[in-house]
Amino acid sequence: MKVDGKPTRTIWLESDGHTVAAIDQRRLPHEFVVVPLTTSDAAADAIRSMLVRGAPLIGATAAYGVALAMREDASDAGLDHAYAKLIATRPTAINLKWALDDMCGALRPLPAEARVAAAYARAAAIAEDDVAINQSIGRHGLTLIEAARAAKKPGERVNVLTHCNAGWLATVDWGTATAPIYQAFDAGVNIHVWVDETRPRNQGASLTAWELGHHGVPHTVIPDNTGGHLMQHGMVDLCIVGTDRVTASGDVCNKIGTYLKALAARDNNVPFYVALPSPTIDFTIDDGVKEIPIEQRDAAEVTDMTGRTKDGRIETVRVVPQGSAVANYGFDVTPSRLVTGLITERGVLLPERAALAAAFPERVERRAEALRA
After folding, report:
1. In which residue ranges of the chain is CATH 3.40.50.10470 found?
2. pLDDT attached to residue 81
3. CATH superfamily of 142-372
4. Residue 370 — pLDDT band, cuts 50, 70, 90?
5. Contact 182/174 with Cβ under 8 angstroms?
6. Angle 15-21-24 (CA atoms, 0-180°, nearest 5)?
7. Binding site: what residues are annotated?
8. Active site: which residues (predicted)?
9. What local confidence, expressed as pLDDT, does residue 5 receive?
C-alpha cells in the first residue's frame, strides 16, 4: 500500500542483504519511523513491545528473526535458542508458531554453513506468500461488498464496520479485513468504513484510520461502544474483522471487543465476516473459549493515553485514578455460531470444521502427521 504516495510494506530486507527494516507502529499516527532490526533479540523485542503487531506480520517478523539468529549462531543449539526466544514473545497469535515451525522445518536438515542464506530466502518467501494470500482474500471479500452494493439504491454508499487494525499494517501488505475494502475502493465502489477506536491501544483510531486516510478511503472513527447503535439504525451493511487464531471448528479469537460486535451484528441481522490467511487456522484446538490462551497486557495500556498536544508535543497522561485495579485482556473469542463466514485465500467459507478441512486438506494432514510422530 502507499504512504504519502510511495508504495510501502511493513517489513522488508535492506540493501545490505541482512538488516531487516520495520515500521515502528508504536509511533503512529503521529510519527512515521522505520527501525532497523540487526539481531534476533531486536526482532523478539519488536514483537514483544508491539513495534510490529498483527498475526501475519508477527509471523513474518519471527521468520526474519530466525534468519538474524542464524547469522549469530547457525548451529542446532542456535536454532533451538532462537525458536524458544521468539515463541515466548506473544502467546495468542498462532501465526508466530506457524512461521517458526516452518523456518525450523526448512533449516533443520541443512548443514550449518547453508542455513543463513536459506533462512533469509525462506523468510522472504513467507513475506511474499502473505502478500499474495491477502490479495486473494481481498478478491473474495470484494464479492461480498459488491453484493451489499447491489442490494442498495443506486449511489448509496456501502458501510463496513471494522474492529482493531486488520489492515496492511497488521500484515506485510494489503491487510486481511481491509484487503476487500481497498480493492472495492480502487474499483470505484462508494464505500465508507466505520473504524472502531479499539481501546486500550487505540489500534483502530491510530492505525486503521491512518492507513485508510493515506489511501484516500472515506472513514469515520467511532468509540468502541457505538457499533451496536449504528447497526440498530441500519447504518452498517456488513462487519469485516481480522483474527489472531481460528480453531478447527471456526471459533475466532480477535482483539478484545470483537465478541460484543458479533453479538450486536447477530441481533440486528448484520453479516459478520472474519478475514484470515490459512496460517491463522489452528487445527490443533476445537473450543476457542476454553483452549486459546488470552494474553493479558500491561495495565499502563489502560491507565495511560498518549497523544499530540495542541502545540505539537507528544505526551502521555494518566486517565485512571491512582490505586484502581486494572484488567487488560488483549483478546476475546467469538463462537463460530456468530460468524457469517470466513474470508480466506481459497474463498468465503462457512465457520465449521468440514468447510475448513475441505479447503485446507494439506494443513489437516500436517496436523495428523504431527500427532502420529
Report:
1. 142-372
2. 97
3. Translation initiation factor eif-2b; domain 2 (3.40.50.10470)
4. low
5. yes
6. 155
7. 53-55, 90, 203, 254-255
8. 244
9. 83
The 3-state secondary structure of 176-210 reads CCHHHHHHHHHCCCCEEEEEECCCCCCHHHHHHHH
| Nearest partner of 207 among 197, 217, 216, judged by Cα | 197
The set of cell numbers assigned to 275 is 478475514
Helix (H), strand (E), coil (C) string for the chain: CEECCEECCCEEECCCCCCEEEECCCCCCCCCCEEEECCHHHHHHHHHCCCCCCHHHHHHHHHHHHHHHHHHCCCHHHHHHHHHHHHCCCCCCHHHHHHHHHHHHHHCCCCHHHHHHHHHHHHHHHHHHHHHHHHHHHHHHHHHHHHHHHCCCCCCCEEEEECCCCCHHHCCCCCCCHHHHHHHHHCCCCEEEEEECCCCCCHHHHHHHHHHHHHCCCEEEECHHHHHHHHHCCCCCEEEECCCEEECCCCEEEECCHHHHHHHHHHCCCCEEEECCHHHEECCCCCHHHHCCCCECCCHHHHEEEEECCCCCEEEEECCCCCCCCCCECEEEECHHHCCEEEECCEEECCCHHHHHHHCHHHHHHHHHHHHC
Residues 6+ apart with CB under 8 A from 225: none
| Residue whose cell numbers read 473459549 | 289
Active site annotation includes 267: no
Task: Kindly give, in sequence order, each residue whose CB lies less than 8 Å from that of residue 18, ignoring residues fewer than 6 positions away.
Answer: 38, 67, 68, 71, 120
What pTM was estimated for this model as a whole?
A: 0.93
Which residue type, as a one-letter code, is found at position 284? T
Give the residue range(s) of CATH 1.20.120.420 domains in the chain: 2-129
What is the C-alpha separation between 329 and 282, in angstroms, rounded? 21
Q: Which CATH class is domain 2-129?
A: mainly alpha
The one catalytic residue in 237, 244, 251, 282 is 244
Q: Specify binding-site residues for substrate.
A: 53-55, 90, 203, 254-255
pLDDT at 367: 67
